[in-house]
Design a protein that fits this description.
This protein is an alpha+beta fold and about 110 residues long. It is about 25% helix and about 15% strand. A 3-stranded mixed beta sheet has the order 1-2-3, covered by helices on one side. The longest helix is centred in the first third of the chain and has 12 residues. The protein is globular, with a radius of gyration of 15 Å.
Amino acid sequence: MDALVDTDDLPTATEEELAERVVEALKTVYDPEIPVNIYDLGLIYKVDIHDAFADIDMTLTAPGCPVAATFPGMVERTVALVPGIKGAAVELVWDPPWTQALINEAARLELGLI
């Protein structure tokens, strides 16, 4: 049985370290229609950490995406579980519009776009 970790006993992480943890957590969230995580897919436009709070701007592949109402909340909950993060807010943005050009090279290769 795993012991629970008391996060009060963990050393304080820098905002840069917390941002790296948040990005790793974002890489565990997958677009429901494309088998690539939302970070590598280019759906995350901004990750700012201030006082252990994550402020994230993200988009979706299309404005009419059926998960538009629920997906940002799922991303918030995932990020809020990152050790050292006290809370998260995800704002869904549409500018600039998402295009395939935002997909990173590894994901392009995985999707057969290269």
